Amino acid sequence: MAKNNKKKVAKTKTNKVVNVKKEENFLDEKPKMEKEESTFNKIMNVILWIVLFAWMAVCLIDFYKTHEEQEPIFCLKKEVTKYDDGNVKSCLGLGYKVYHYNRKSFKAIEFGPFWSKDRSAEEE
Protein backbone atom coordinates (compact mmCIF):
# COMPACT_ATOMS: atom_id res chain seq x y z
CA MET A 1 0.00 0.00 0.00
CA ALA A 2 1.35 3.39 -0.92
CA LYS A 3 1.05 6.05 1.73
CA ASN A 4 -0.70 9.27 0.85
CA ASN A 5 1.66 12.01 2.03
CA LYS A 6 -0.53 14.95 0.91
CA LYS A 7 -1.52 17.35 3.63
CA LYS A 8 -5.18 18.02 4.05
CA VAL A 9 -6.23 21.62 4.30
CA ALA A 10 -9.33 23.02 5.93
CA LYS A 11 -10.67 26.55 5.98
CA THR A 12 -12.05 28.12 9.12
CA LYS A 13 -14.77 30.75 9.34
CA THR A 14 -12.18 33.48 8.98
CA ASN A 15 -10.81 31.87 5.80
CA LYS A 16 -7.52 30.90 7.44
CA VAL A 17 -5.91 27.79 6.05
CA VAL A 18 -5.25 25.15 8.68
CA ASN A 19 -3.33 21.90 8.16
CA VAL A 20 -5.30 18.82 9.18
CA LYS A 21 -3.29 15.76 10.04
CA LYS A 22 -4.25 12.60 8.24
CA GLU A 23 -5.54 9.90 10.52
CA GLU A 24 -3.00 7.15 10.81
CA ASN A 25 -3.93 3.91 9.21
CA PHE A 26 -3.41 1.12 11.74
CA LEU A 27 -2.83 -1.42 8.96
CA ASP A 28 0.16 0.49 7.64
CA GLU A 29 1.88 0.76 11.01
CA LYS A 30 4.04 -2.01 12.38
CA PRO A 31 3.11 -3.05 15.91
CA LYS A 32 5.34 -1.65 18.60
CA MET A 33 7.64 -4.18 20.21
CA GLU A 34 6.91 -4.90 23.83
CA LYS A 35 9.60 -4.25 26.37
CA GLU A 36 12.16 -6.99 26.67
CA GLU A 37 11.60 -9.27 29.65
CA SER A 38 14.08 -8.75 32.42
CA THR A 39 16.55 -11.50 33.24
CA PHE A 40 14.84 -12.07 36.59
CA ASN A 41 11.47 -12.63 34.90
CA LYS A 42 12.99 -15.09 32.44
CA ILE A 43 14.68 -17.06 35.22
CA MET A 44 11.50 -17.14 37.31
CA ASN A 45 9.49 -18.27 34.28
CA VAL A 46 11.90 -21.17 33.65
CA ILE A 47 11.94 -22.16 37.33
CA LEU A 48 8.14 -22.16 37.56
CA TRP A 49 7.83 -24.35 34.44
CA ILE A 50 10.40 -26.80 35.83
CA VAL A 51 8.56 -27.00 39.16
CA LEU A 52 5.23 -27.51 37.36
CA PHE A 53 6.60 -30.33 35.18
CA ALA A 54 8.32 -31.97 38.18
CA TRP A 55 5.06 -31.89 40.17
CA MET A 56 3.16 -33.37 37.22
CA ALA A 57 5.80 -36.12 36.92
CA VAL A 58 5.48 -36.97 40.63
CA CYS A 59 1.68 -37.16 40.38
CA LEU A 60 1.75 -39.25 37.21
CA ILE A 61 4.36 -41.68 38.58
CA ASP A 62 2.33 -42.28 41.73
CA PHE A 63 -0.89 -42.54 39.71
CA TYR A 64 0.72 -45.17 37.47
CA LYS A 65 2.05 -47.09 40.50
CA THR A 66 -1.42 -47.01 42.07
CA HIS A 67 -3.02 -48.15 38.82
CA GLU A 68 -0.60 -51.12 38.76
CA GLU A 69 -1.65 -51.89 42.38
CA GLN A 70 1.76 -51.02 43.81
CA GLU A 71 2.71 -48.71 46.65
CA PRO A 72 3.20 -45.05 45.65
CA ILE A 73 6.78 -43.76 45.73
CA PHE A 74 6.32 -40.14 46.84
CA CYS A 75 4.48 -40.25 50.18
CA LEU A 76 4.80 -37.37 52.60
CA LYS A 77 2.71 -39.02 55.30
CA LYS A 78 1.59 -42.64 55.71
CA GLU A 79 -1.21 -43.75 58.00
CA VAL A 80 -2.89 -47.07 58.75
CA THR A 81 -6.45 -47.19 60.07
CA LYS A 82 -7.41 -50.54 61.60
CA TYR A 83 -10.94 -51.91 61.57
CA ASP A 84 -12.46 -55.16 62.85
CA ASP A 85 -12.43 -56.71 59.37
CA GLY A 86 -9.09 -55.31 58.07
CA ASN A 87 -7.26 -52.04 57.56
CA VAL A 88 -6.96 -49.04 55.29
CA LYS A 89 -3.55 -47.61 54.41
CA SER A 90 -3.45 -43.98 53.33
CA CYS A 91 -0.64 -42.02 51.73
CA LEU A 92 -0.60 -38.24 51.46
CA GLY A 93 1.35 -37.04 48.41
CA LEU A 94 1.93 -33.65 46.83
CA GLY A 95 -1.69 -32.64 46.22
CA TYR A 96 -3.22 -36.13 46.24
CA LYS A 97 -4.10 -39.04 48.54
CA VAL A 98 -3.91 -42.76 47.93
CA TYR A 99 -6.08 -45.20 49.88
CA HIS A 100 -5.41 -48.94 49.89
CA TYR A 101 -8.48 -50.71 51.28
CA ASN A 102 -7.74 -54.19 52.59
CA ARG A 103 -10.99 -55.21 54.27
CA LYS A 104 -13.39 -58.13 54.10
CA SER A 105 -16.14 -55.86 52.86
CA PHE A 106 -14.06 -54.65 49.91
CA LYS A 107 -10.52 -54.46 48.57
CA ALA A 108 -9.50 -51.54 46.38
CA ILE A 109 -6.94 -48.84 45.76
CA GLU A 110 -8.13 -45.27 45.34
CA PHE A 111 -6.21 -42.26 44.01
CA GLY A 112 -7.77 -38.84 44.57
CA PRO A 113 -7.23 -35.20 45.50
CA PHE A 114 -5.78 -34.31 48.91
CA TRP A 115 -9.22 -33.40 50.31
CA SER A 116 -10.69 -36.87 49.66
CA LYS A 117 -11.60 -38.93 52.72
CA ASP A 118 -11.55 -42.60 53.64
CA ARG A 119 -14.79 -43.99 52.20
CA SER A 120 -14.90 -47.00 54.50
CA ALA A 121 -14.99 -44.69 57.54
CA GLU A 122 -18.13 -43.00 56.16
CA GLU A 123 -19.98 -46.32 55.94
CA GLU A 124 -19.65 -47.18 59.63
Structure notes:
- The protein is of the alpha+beta class and 124 residues long.
- It has one domain (37-123).
- It is built from 2 helices and 6 strands; from the N terminus they run ββαββββα.
- It has helices spanning 39-67, 119-123, and strands at 8-11, 17-20, 77-83, 86-92, 96-103, 107-113.
- The strands form 2 sheets. A 4-stranded antiparallel sheet has the order 3-4-5-6, with helices on one face. A two-stranded antiparallel sheet has the order 1-2.
- β5 (96-103) and β6 form a beta hairpin.
- The chain is elongated.
Class inferred from helices and paired strands: alpha+beta
| Number of beta strands | 6
Helix content: 25-40%
Distance between the termini: 79 Å
Q: How would a crystallographer describe the biggest sheet?
A: 4 strands, antiparallel
Mean pLDDT: 76
**SSE succession:** EEHEEEEH
The structural domain count equals 1
Q: Kindly provide the radius of gyration, computed on alpha-carbon positions and rounded to a whole number of angstroms.
A: 33 Å
What is the overall shape?
elongated
Low-confidence stretches: none
